[in-house]
Structures are given as structure tokens and as C-alpha cells.
Amino acid sequence: MDILTKFRQAPISVKELKLNIFAPVERKKTEMVEKEILFEDEIFKVELTGYKLNQTHRDILDIILFFGDAKIEDIILEDGLPIRAFSLYQIQKHLNYKSKKNSKWIRDKFSELKNVTLKITNKKLKNDIEFSIIRIIKHSEKLGTYVLVMEELYMAFFKKEISIGYKKLLPIILSLKHAQTKALIRYILTHTTGIQINIDKALKKIGIKGEKRNIEYYRKLVLDELKEVGKEFNIELIKTTDDNRKKSDINIKYTKHKEVKIYHPNKEISEKV
């Protein structure tokens, strides 16, 4: 499978969703940082320079990559990079915005997405890769539509990674009320053979931090929403104790969804996220 075909079907690297590159929040305003560590464990370290990304950025990118017109790649050559044609109305419609006239905030998100540099270091292999995600994202007077072109260095990174596609599930993800649930669902779907994980550990995995009261608030918020939509994603909530005298602990059990596409790189990978 060539890289453009793979990107059309599964245009997101698993690392993006597992290494907290898109924070579990939704904000119309975001801050710029000189350098910030987004994620670090015994193997990986992720550093960001530029605008901090969140689930709003991921939503917009997903809409463009999955629902944008990819046929434009056949008529425009941009160094063999993925290209999508799309409209601002299309983004607002998929986000279910009632008023589709105010689009300035979307253009602001474009600027933020374009002005981001990520550095992923593999401590075990003692190497790193640094890249921006997007080369071009703007309105084309010639084509009469908005156009997105992925960055060359991002594609060099993507080519070596496991990638995921969840196009048929995306409308449900976009309809979720809370960014924390969106981030958790995206993280869960990356698991090729399914997963069973404690809710508190899962929240930590997606970057939920803070005091105990803060964690408990997001725990309840996410669990309440998963009770409503979990079946749509093959997610089951399992109590680990029936002792009513104790606070009931809960595991999230995910069974691989038939509509989720996961592709491994052509060359064998040596590290698992």
C-alpha cells in the first residue's frame, strides 16, 4: 500500500493519540509556549514549541482528513504530500454548530495548527524526530475552496508509524459532550487487539492531572458519558468489586471495533507505544 492510499484510510499516527499531543480539553483560545514537555516516560519524550493543541484541534483535523476531498491529490502535485479540499461550512456542520456564520475562530485554529513544532525523542533508541504537522492550510482563490497540505517531515514520521482510521465512528466522537471523553475514546481505539484498563489509569494515560478532587470530577464526567455511548465503541464498564462497603472500582474493557482500521508500517517496528 502506498503512503497516500494508507493516509486516506488511516490518517492519524497512533503515537499522536497515545503521547498526549492533543490535550484532553476543548478551548477556543490556546496559549503559545516556547517549549513544553507534553509527555515523558521511560521510553518517549514529547516536546512542543508553539501553540498547545487540544481536542478542538484534533476534531478539526479529523474532519478535514476524513471528510475533505482527497481527489485533489490527483490534479495537484505538492511533492507527493496528502492534500485535502474542504470548506469552513463543512467543519461547522460536522461540529454541529447552529450558527455557521462565525468562522473566524476556525481560521484561528488553522493558524495554531500550522504554528506548532513537535519533537519526539526515543530514549531507548537514542534518536529523535522534529516536525510540524501542516505545510499549508488556507483558502485558494484559484480553486475557490480551502486547502490543507501535510508537512513533509510529518509524513516522514507518519510513514514509520502505526496509523489509525475511525471515519465511521467520527460523527459519534464529534457529538460527545466532553473533551476528556473524546481523548479517552481516541486513546482506547488505538489498541489493535482491545484493552482492559482501570478508569483512573486510563485518565492518567490521556493526561488528566491535578488534585484528587479534580481527578474524581473527570472520572465521574467520563464514566457518565461512557455509560451512554460506550456500546457504540465496543466499550464495556466492568465493576471490579461487589462490596458495597467499598468504593466500586471500574475497568474499561474495549473489544476491537470492526470499523476501526489500523495499519502497521511496511517495515517492522522495533518499539511499541
Structure description:
The strands form four sheets. The protein has a four-stranded antiparallel β-sheet with strand order 2-3-5-6. Strands 1-9-13 form a three-stranded antiparallel β-sheet. A three-stranded antiparallel β-sheet has the order 4-8-7. It folds into two domains: 3-164, no CATH class; 169-254, Arc Repressor Mutant, subunit A. The protein contains ten helices and 13 strands. With 273 residues, it is of the alpha+beta class. Residues 267-273 have low confidence and may be disordered. A hairpin with a 4-residue loop joins strand 7 and strand 8 (145-150). The longest helix is centred in the C-terminal third of the chain and has 18 residues, at 212-229. The relative contact order is 0.16. Helix content is 34%, strand content 25%. The two termini are 23 Å apart. It has helices spanning 3-9, 14-18, 55-67, 88-94, 104-114, 152-159, 170-175, 179-189, 199-205, 212-229, and strands at 12-13, 32-40, 44-51, 83-86, 116-122, 127-131, 134-140, 145-150, 163-165, 195-198, 235-239, 250-254, 261-263.
